[in-house]
Amino acid sequence: MNVVIATLNAKYIHTSLALRYLKSFSQGEFEIEIAEYTIKDPAMSIAADLFSKKPDVIGFSCYIWNIEETIVIVDMLRKVMPDVKIMLGGPEVSYDTEHWMNRLTSVDFIVMGEGEETFRDLLRQVSGEQKYHFVFGMAYRKDGKVIITPPRPKLDLNVIPSPHRFEEDTIPMRNRVVYFETSRGCPFSCQFCLSSIEVGVRYFDIEWVKSEITYLIDNGAKLIKFVDRTFNIKRDYAMEVFQFLIDNHRGCVFQFEITADIMRPEVLDFLAENAPPGVFRFEIGVQSTNDPTNLAVQRRQNFTKLSRTVMKVKESGKIDQHLDLIAGLPHEDYDTFRKTFNDVFALRPEELQLGFLKMLRGTGLRIDAAKFGYVYSERAPYEMLGNDLMPFGDIVRIKRVEDVLEKFWNAHRMDRTMEYLIEKAYPSPFDFFQAFGDYWEARGWSRIGHQLEDLFTRLWSFLEEDAQPELERDVAFGLLRIDYYLQHKYKPRKLWWEDRLEKKEWTAALRYAADKLGMDERELQKKGTIDRLPFDYGVWLEEGRVDLSNPTLLVFLYSGEEAGPQLVALPQPDGRAAALK
Question: How many contiguous H segments (helices) and E segments (strands) does the chain have?
């Protein structure tokens, strides 16, 4: 029997851990081929590729980001391969399963929940007696009726063979994200999350975990993302994994989802002292700082402790942090969400992910949608369109914040300018991103592409027109130019502003800078560029104050290396100097 299991990943660099678990668990009995595509691939191309494999059985792993695209492909395959057995599995079809069976008449079976054992047993019946009622945890059709079998007991994780050791994965893993889990389940009950449905947490054997990670590193893995819902819930287990990774990382980067307010001080101290810089990344779901909201969604969270953890990690300078927010939760209107945003932004995470509530099938919040006046899209990803406190108009405005936040804060293209604008020029970070997002949308920029230069020119266009009383344009313009220079590995050939040094002034500045730096003028002209600020950059760095009495000469030296250019700020001609890389 020729079995193919497939999925549509969100991006090419992603890999499907679920498919690899299914293959590994059934490998002794069935030869299974994995076929991975992306949601951007044409449906016809995917269907043609699967058709060429001549499968007897095709299984698809389904999520909110790929279900609608998968349905199109399934319907195509059913028309050109009327005898093929088509199975679906994954979180998107594990709930409201009868709905999916009735909607998708091209589908023969749906595997519900944890799928390894169910999938194997289903393959046994497809190739054997076809007594599908013996297979727990799935749906099938009999005489035109949908039959759903009883749920399957949870699997002993330690009987699952490795999903990571397929020969065909050894080369790709060097260029793709490798997903890894040390546990299944979540101890929390957040009503917007599917993980709240499964009670209890189960762990893989710690020695097995170490062996698998060693194998992945040995075979060139560069980024391993742990998919555990709360990696640090079992402190001793997490600490042992942290220590193992510290001792054996060999440059591989590891990303974890952690719950920050339960992180113990001794764990933070251990990481601050021992974690190699840049090897660990933490993803922390804050979602909201509004107490009534957290109570309504059964989310226990101590924001004071969470903040302490985030700041402690940040002060160590070793671990990047990605904090998540969800707009549209119960009891949160536009103003309280603004406060949530500003509360979390004050922690200055390296990345702040602003998402919007998805009314996922099977979650308590979807079941109670009417209680809070929710309206939402009926098709995946089921994004909320409004509720009793946050109408659609507010959602649209906050989406503009999300757009510019992603481009201008999370991308870290102009950190100096951003820090000035959100800290000194605008009443709050949210107010800046909202004003800029409104301006961005009004000019139609959200519907067209952009190059690096466009981001700088569009921000400057906004700042030139905005009447914000605290905004000092000379400062913003100077910092924006510094950020632009520092975005290049090589001396930029093109500048987006017109304010340039006159030739005579530039020649004098070049001679002065070369003398100060002990360089030949021709070498400096080849490897560097010169600009000026109308204020003292040293005073600005040290005191955050604008001093117009002592302009600064800026020298940028380019080496073409990953480290980027070096910025040297020289007094012009006398006074304080500042330098940074």
Answer: 20, 21
